[in-house]
Amino acid sequence: MLAAYASAVGGDDPLANLTVGDLPAPEPQPGWARVRVRAASLNHHDIWTLRGVSSAPVTPPQILGCDAAGEVDAYGGEPPAGAPPVGARVVVYPIITCGRCPACIADEPLGCRFFRMLSEPPLGGALAEYVEAPASNLVVLPDQVSFADAACLPTAYLTAYRALFVRAALRPGMNVLVQGATGGVATACILLGRLAGITVYATSRDEAKRAFAVDLGAEAAFPVERETARAVIGATGGLGVDAVVDTVGEPTWDLSLRAVRPGGVVVVPGATGGPNPPAQLNRIFFRSVTVAGTTMGTRGELRRLVDLTATGALRPLIGSTHPLRDAAAAFAEMAGGDLRGKIVLET
Ligand SMILES: [Zn+2]
Fold first, then answer.
1. What CATH number did the domain enclosing 249 receive?
2. Is 339 found in the same domain as 284?
3. 32-70: buried (b, 16+ CB within 10 Å) or exposed (e) per residue?
4. Which residues have beta carbons under 5 A from ligand 1 (an ion)?
5. How remote is the CA of residue 186 from the centroid of ligand 1, in Å?
């Protein structure tokens, strides 16, 4: 089968480790399904994998990709009770856990010591014609939800959903500053925030991207500079925002701490601009700011996103679509940083 995979890891240029070529299709074990992937989407997670950074040592060839939507192709052995039939349209919940430990039973998958995402060793990835996953990870897609839209949901939209509504506990009428205006998680935060009646402010260094964020539904968009904190505080009645979602890190951290209100939350779902800003602990303790890391979300939250997409309330923003064989061009687009939402690969 055709797949996009890491054929090496490390080095100065992670994209040089990417190969698109033929690998054996997975043979699912009992209780697992093989899905014929129709659409997959890229995440920065894939670039980390090309660097060799993952939850376990990466041994090439490692198929990339966390987000897959397609049709159930086969089961290993008998389909488990309640599993969708062969041919059903599904999106794959990308977190694989033991399913039995106290954390799994409490629906807190991150607490499971067997936590893995698709494309993390020893699991295969979504950027291929076929991917395998436990049958319990298949979420059935209503006919109204396209494969491309569904492929946006499992990582970026799920991460944004949990960041906004669980970690920041935002409710209608509250406000949030989204650092970065046009990446996958940032655009998901703008769309989901607006949908929930939350006032969204965005930032970008780039004027055209700021205009784009406003078109998408942000109340206002600001440059990444120190004076922006004053503008955000002014826009929120002198207080600062209830929450900041900062996926960028080093370039934006100072602004995040200045723009959040006393007692507010800075949610960190990523650090695409570098993981080690000066911590400024004085701002954190003196103003009772909570810093909340977050990764992904639960199966139930993914189902909720599928439902929101099925009703038409949510339309994931897709910046570009490529055939799987052109994965190298798609990765170059993501690494170049000139994103407008999600990049989808069709197989
Ligand atoms: Zn577990």
1. 3.40.50.720
2. no
3. bbbbbbbbbbbbbbbbbbbbbebeeebeebbbbbbbbbb
4. 97-98, 101, 104, 112
5. 30
Structural domain that includes position 74 = 2-152+317-346
Task: State the distance from the centre of ligand 1 to the C-alpha of 116, rounded, in angstroms.
Answer: 10
* Residue 301 domain flag: no
Name the token pair of 264: 């507010």
* Angle, CA of 1, 116 and 121, to the nearest 5°: 50
Q: Which residues partner with 91 through β-bridges? A: 69, 139
Query: What pLDDT digit, counting tens, does each position of 73-125 carry?
Result: 999 999 999 999 999 999 999 999 999 999 999 989 989 999 999 999 999 99
User: At 70, which CATH number?
Assistant: 3.90.180.10
Distance 268 CA to ligand 1 centre (A): 24
> Ligand 1 center to residue 83 CA distance, Å?
20
Structure tokens at 39: 């659409």
pTM: 0.95
| Cα 115 to ligand 1 centre (Å) | 7
2-47, pLDDT tens digit by residue? 999 999 998 999 999 999 999 999 999 999 999 999 999 999 999 9
Q: What is the Å distance from ligand 1's center to 96 Cα? A: 9
Cα(133) to centroid of ligand 1, in Å? 16
334 and 240 within one domain: no
Based on the fold, state whether residues 24 and 53 are members of the same structural domain.
yes
Residue 180 has pLDDT above 90, yes or no: no
The answer to whether residue 308 is domain-embedded is no
Tell me if 83 is assigned to some domain. yes
The per-residue pLDDT for range 314-346, each reduced to its tens digit, is 999 999 999 999 999 999 999 988 889 999 999
